[in-house]
Hints:
By secondary structure, this protein is of the alpha+beta class. The protein folds into two domains: 1-76, Arc Repressor Mutant, subunit A; 78-130, 2-Layer Sandwich (Dna Ligase, domain 1). 35% of the residues lie in helices and 19% in strands. It has four helices and six strands, in the order αβααββββαβ. The strands form two sheets. A three-stranded antiparallel β-sheet has the order 1-3-2. It has a three-stranded mixed β-sheet with strand order 5-4-6, with no helix packed on it. A hairpin with a 5-residue loop joins strand 4 (82-86) and strand 5 (92-95). The longest helix has 13 residues, at 45-57.
Amino acid sequence: MSQPPVQRQTRQRSAVQVLLNEFDDFRSAQQVHELLRSRGESVGLTTVYRSLQGLADAGEVDVRVNDDGETVYRKCSDHHHHHLVCRECGTTVEIEGPAVETWVDRVATQHGFTSVSHTFDIVGLCPACS
């Protein structure tokens, strides 16, 4: 499996990275673009999409598809984790899932799979939205 090409660090990509560090919930490319523009950043929506995809390919952001089918992004920690996601407000909590890891390994082994990866999100209502 080949590595994704290294993206060069542009002013726009840096602006996207800085912005992602400022919030804990998932945001769409359009929301990131609007926030950057409201701050006076001269950046196109296509550049925001490219930057987010590059960050996702590099493992620097989490990517998920929300209930509306829209792809959303969030700065992630540097270790394997899962998420609790509020379906109302988008609040996201990173969680560890040792039982999930054990189950994935067992199921993969039972079926002869190797080099497996997985994502796991639990979606519900956070305390503020309940």
